Amino acid sequence: MIKRQKRVFIILTTICAALLGGCSMGETKIEYERLVKALDEGDMATVMSASDDGYAYVEERVIESERGKKEGGEYGRTLYQNTNGVYNINERVLYGYSNQEIVNKAADGKESNKGKEDIYSTKIIYEDNLIRSDKGELNLSPIRLNLDIFSGLEDLKPKNDKVKYNEPNRIGYTLSETEFNNILNDNLKLTYDKFDSASITVGFNKSKDTDDKEMLIEEINIVVWLEKGKEDTGKSTHLLEINWSFPESSNKNINMKEKYLEIANN
C-alpha cells in the first residue's frame, strides 16, 4: 500500500512538472514578460483588451490622501477621482467622464463639519497627455491617464511570479526610492521630504497565452507613501493610489468605436 501511494505521488509530481513548467506542487508560473515589456514600451495595443479596430474601455480610480497636524489638532483629507471612457489606441485619445469628491475627517476618524463634498462631474477628453473638460476651468490634475509611464519596469524582477490554482494572476514590484524616481516619478512629479514606499501590482486575465485565449493585462495598481514637512513645522503623510482597469468583458458586450463616437459627439 505504501509503495502504491509513493508511485501515485511520483506520477502526480511528474504531471505537475510537465504541465506547470517544473514549478512547485500546485503552483504555476505567470508568464508576464511579454506584457510587462509592452507596458515598459508604452505599447497600449498589446497591454489593453482592445477591440479589433483599436478601441478599449478604461476605468481609472485615483485616491490622494493627506494626514497631518495643524494648529488645533490633527486633520485628514482624502480626494477620490473616478474616471472612465473609451481609449482610441491608434490616435492615443480618450473620451470619457470623470467625477471628483473630497472627504475631510477629524483625528478621531469621524467626518469633520465639511464632511464629504462632491466637487464636480464632467465630460473629459484626454489627448497629447493633456486633459480638458467641457465645463471650462476645473482642477483635473488628479486624473492620471498617462499610462505609458513605466519605462524601466522590464528590468526589475517581481517579488513573486508564481500563483496557486485559486489565486489571482498578479505580480508585484516593491520599488526603492531610486527605482521610484526613475520609473514613476519622472512622470508623476511628486514632491516630498521623505520616501516611505512605492509598489506596482499588475493583474492578468490568465497566467499564460494559450491557443484559444490570449493573455492580457486587466489591472494595474500603483501605491506610493511619502512624507512632507518637518516635525517642528508640521509633518504630513501622503498616499497616492492609482488603479487602472481594462475589463475584457466590456469590449465583448459593447461596440467600443460606437461608444467612443457617442461620447465624443455628445
Describe the structure.
The protein has helices at residues 2-19, 33-41, 44-47, 177-188, 248-253, 256-265, and strands spanning 27-29, 55-70, 73-88, 93-106, 111-127, 130-133, 162-164, 170-174, 194-204, 217-228, 236-245. The chain has 266 residues and is α+β, with helices and mostly antiparallel strands. The strands form 2 sheets. Strands 6-5-4-3-2-11-10-9-8 form a 9-stranded antiparallel sheet. The chain has a two-stranded antiparallel sheet with strand order 1-7. Strand 5 and strand 6 (130-133) form a beta hairpin. The radius of gyration is 22 Å and the shape is globular. The model is unreliable at 13-23 (pLDDT under 50).
The helix/strand series, from N terminus to C terminus, equals: HEHHEEEEEEEHEEEHH
User: What is the helix tally?
Assistant: 6
Strand content: 35-45%
Structural class, from secondary structure content?
alpha+beta
Query: Going across the major beta sheet, what is the strand order?
Result: 6-5-4-3-2-11-10-9-8
Rg on CA atoms, Å: 22 Å
Helical residue percent band = 10-25%
Round the mean pLDDT to the nearest integer and report it.
85
Low-confidence stretches: 13-23
- Characterize the biggest β-sheet: 9 strands, antiparallel
What kind of assembly state do the chains in view correspond to? single chain
Shape estimate: globular
The N- to C-terminal Cα distance equals 73 Å
**Tally of strands:** 11
